[in-house]
Amino acid sequence: MLKKQKTEKQKEIDLCKMRYAVGKIESDVYEEARAKMESELAKIDEELENYSENLSNLEKEVGDIIVSCSKLSDLWKES
Question: By CB neighbour count within 10 A (0-12 exposed, 13-18 middle, 19+ buried), where does 4 fall?
Answer without folding.
Answer: exposed
